[in-house]
From TrEMBL:
Any one Gene Ontology molecular-function term assigned to this protein's record: hydrolase activity, acting on acid anhydrides, in phosphorus-containing anhydrides
Required cofactor(s): Mn(2+); Mg(2+)
Protein name in the entry: NUDIX hydrolase
InterPro entries per record: NUDIX_hydrolase-like_dom_sf, NUDIX_hydrolase_dom, NUDT19
Annotated keywords: Hydrolase, Magnesium, Manganese, Metal-binding
């Protein structure tokens, strides 16, 4: 893993001065590095979280969120590596692995409108506009991913995802997540949007340009996002995220206060 730069610090207000006596149990979460090829190179889809949100307000992130209990529904029509394969990559149970993949697909659709599913095991939706109402219903928790896919005659395409990383929020923080990072290509014909209440803006950007914006103070990045962007910046083509063979290890950083900022230290 790349070494974090010295200037990557967190505002002191993000972390309580007195950490919890007993660390909060991390909630399982999934996030997706959605990439595409553009004229000037590989681009990744980024969202700036609404300022004032309880977790990571104002930070630039990838689409993602917490696992919903219904994400573990075994009734999902599934194509690609089985839950047992994902369980080996993320060192978890097959049941949790299924929920993580489903959460990755659901959250990506909810937050960007990109749907990693298709009418069959070898096809993918080219236009997600007909599913706009279902997208809103998913956001409002009126329907589960399994229910939406079944009623729409769609198959979840787990083969369009690849495992990328696993970061756990430091024990000093009051809100913690055990987040599995996935990577995926933007399906042909689909487009990502900013139709979500959780982001103030969204944009496709070259990873190197996003890092330059961070250095110039135009973006706020959490360590996992910084590392992922640095890794994506080395890609020659977006399709490389589907062929790279990555070993995923759980990373649990520690926090160290230095004056008015908090430094993140990776053991």
């Amino acid at each position: 893993m790349r070494e974090l730069p010295e200037e990557l610090v967190l505002p002191a207000s993000m972390v309580p001065e007195v950490p919890p006596a007993i660390p909060v149990e991390p909630r399982d979460a999934a996030t997706v590095l959605l990439v595409r090829d553009a004229a000037e190179g590989v681009e990744v889809f980024l969202q700036r979280r609404v300022a004032g949100m309880a977790f990571a307000g104002g930070m630039t992130v990838f689409p993602g969120g917490g696992v919903d209990r219904r994400d573990a529904d075994t009734g999902v029509a599934w194509a690609g590596p089985p839950p047992s394969w994902w369980a080996e990559r993320f060192a978890c149970s097959p049941e949790l692995a299924r929920a993580l993949v489903c959460a990755a697909v659901r959250e990506t659709f909810e937050e960007s409108g990109v749907l990693l599913a298709g009418p069959s095991e070898t096809t993918v939706v080219a236009d997600t506009a007909p599913y706009a109402a279902a997208r809103r219903a998913l956001v409002d928790r009126e329907v589960s991913l399994a229910g939406f896919l079944a009623s729409s005659g769609l198959v979840l395409r787990a083969d369009l995802l690849r495992p990328w990383a696993n970061w756990v929020t430091p024990a000093e923080e009051p809100r913690r997540y055990d987040t599995r990072f996935f990577a995926a290509l933007l399906p042909e014909g689909q487009r990502a949007d900013a139709v979500t209440t959780e982001a103030s803006d969204a944009v496709w950007q070259r990873p190197a340009d996003a890092l330059a914006d961070w250095r110039a103070g135009r973006r706020l990045l959490l360590p996992p996002t910084w590392v992922a962007l640095a890794e994506l910046a080395e890609l020659g083509a977006a399709a490389e995220v589907l062929v790279v063979d990555r070993t995923v290890e759980k990373i649990i950083p520690k926090l160290v206060r230095e004056g008015g900022a908090v430094r993140v230290v990776v053991p």
